[in-house]
Amino acid sequence: MQEKEMSVIDHLDELRNRIIKVIVAFVIFLGIGLYYTKAIFNFLVQDLHGKLLALGPSDVLWIYLMIGGVFAIACSIPVIAYQIWAFVKPALHVKERKSTMLYIPALFLLFVCGLAFGYYFIFPNVLKFLQDIGEDLVTVTFTAERYFSFLFNLVVPFAFFFDLPVIILFLTSIGIVSPAFLRKSRRFAYFILIIIGTAISPPDFVSDMMTSLPLLVIYELSILVSSIAYRRRIKRLQHESE
């Protein structure tokens, strides 16, 4: 009984150490992001005509923290993924350790692809649609706080959702999730994803469709990769039992 309690304590201590490593990495990347905020800012507003307005000194600080924070999150993805992998590694088979190790760079690449998809496709099309419908009604002037809130609220969720297939692949490979469960949960998942899509987009039908449909496609891709991983897992278990 005492040995079991010590084992639990050891696991909690290891978890605490790995969380600390993630926090330290995030703080380091945040510092780097704050240093390059001006360059990132200029890149993000290069297509705007005219400068953004800041209504107070706090808006400038908010811009630095927001841009630096998103940069830090993106760069911390591999660190977070590795720490999770290292924590669960003792419970994995040798082949599972090697295969799941490849998920770490995949998570980072897909996160960056999600950022690119949101920034180059979703954001400009939604912004153009909103500008076009209001062109004859009002003169649109952007404040920095409103502009970047709108930008990141659209783009960052897509970055996280692009990682969903890899996460599902990992959970399937270790036996936590199955494609049958994902198919059975499809209606509920669609409902949740549509709510998320409408929540992160402006309150109009076109924007809701532009944000919700890609999320549904990502879910279907997750079912596909889960099916592949599930078949491989079944074959491996059958081979080990022989």
Describe the structure.
This protein is an all-alpha fold and 242 residues long. Helix 3 packs parallel to helix 6 and helix 9 packs antiparallel against helix 10. The longest helix has 37 residues. It is flat. The two termini are 35 Å apart. Belongs to the TatC family. It is a multi-pass membrane protein. Forms a complex with TatA. InterPro entries: TatC.
What structural class do the secondary elements suggest? mainly alpha
Radius of gyration over all CA atoms, rounded? 22 Å
Strand segment tally? 0
Helix amount, in percent?
A: over 70%
Low-confidence stretches: 1-6
Summary keywords:
83% helix; disordered N terminus; mainly alpha; single chain
